[in-house]
Write a structure and sequence with these properties.
Layout lengths: L21 H10 L6 H17 L5 H12 L6 H7 L4 H8 L10
């Protein structure tokens, strides 16, 4: 299901944010061996809402804060986010959510 007009940057982030679809999110997740669950989608939707409001992809600390605020203390922990998006949760989740790479994330 490769869309020939889909443009990604050299790190695999979507360049045209309006190209994003849930199907694309599943495809991007599959490429990094993540099977999207309701828990993943909860974070993806939260991230997309965050981006709509602040026009920036959150790094780890603001992401944890936003998750805590919206989804509660249990989920608002970096350990929880690491189980869903191993390595760098802000970078990986932003990529799957079709958002730019978070600033301050190497």
């Amino acid at each position: 299901m490769t869309n020939h007009s889909l443009v990604l940057d050299e790190e695999g982030y979507l360049l045209n944010l309006s190209d994003w679809t849930p199907e694309l999110a599943n495809q991007l997740a599959a490429e990094v061996d993540i099977e999207m669950t309701d828990a993943h989608w909860e974070i993806i939707h939260l991230l997309r809402d965050f981006y709509q409001e602040y026009e920036v992809s959150p790094a780890m600390r603001p992401l944890v804060k936003a998750v805590t605020k919206k989804l509660g203390k249990e989920k608002g922990r970096s350990i929880y986010l690491m189980t869903l998006f191993p390595g760098s949760p802000p970078k990986l989740a932003a990529k799957i959510a079709g958002l730019p790479k978070p600033a301050n994330c190497l």
